[in-house]
């Protein structure tokens, strides 16, 4: 895998080097600001709601890792955006299932809060994962980063870099307009996958320290029937000792939609 920053992508990419290239840490706001990829549509902000009351599944250790979407669906969890954490440039709609961003000069009229992201255009979910497995899917448009962050990860400018994957306390996978990148601790790794899907799947086995990112693609089957398949984009293995919250970084004129489990 090549290692490259989003800043390099904006300059046209790096060609001809044979091995990984480590680049200086950069801030999401510096490398992604004003990058418009698609035309988003934003409506009024949703009213704050309560987190979904879900029964925490019993954790069974040493079970085989999921190898197909049917396996992943068994660990599906329902998520909702926590508007209290959303940066003022983000708009939460669809009952807490959609987050969108227009331009930097269009902000949501909300009060400042200590748990709100001060600068980074990010939002966390109300539901955290600790002691069990979880899988969720996100439909997106534009330039986004999807990932997880520790509950204690910084959200204010005084805390240092707060973007998903900019620090040691968060991990993310993003679509830059031409390729996928995995982010952690201020470094990005380019993922050599040519086919872009509009849906990203995330699987987290918190006790085992496994975080997988998938592209979710619609495939036509026999007699014109359609189904969804997953392709592993990146696997991260770490020691997750604390609760992790699903998080989302949203570029200008972009959006993320938390999809519902198919019945």
TrEMBL record:
GO terms for molecular function: zinc ion binding. It comes from the Eukaryota. It comes from Amphiprion percula (Orange clownfish). Residues 59-263 form the B30.2/SPRY domain. The keyword Metal-binding applies. One of its GO terms (cellular component) is cytoplasm. This is B30.2/SPRY domain-containing protein. Keywords: Metal-binding, Zinc, Zinc-finger.
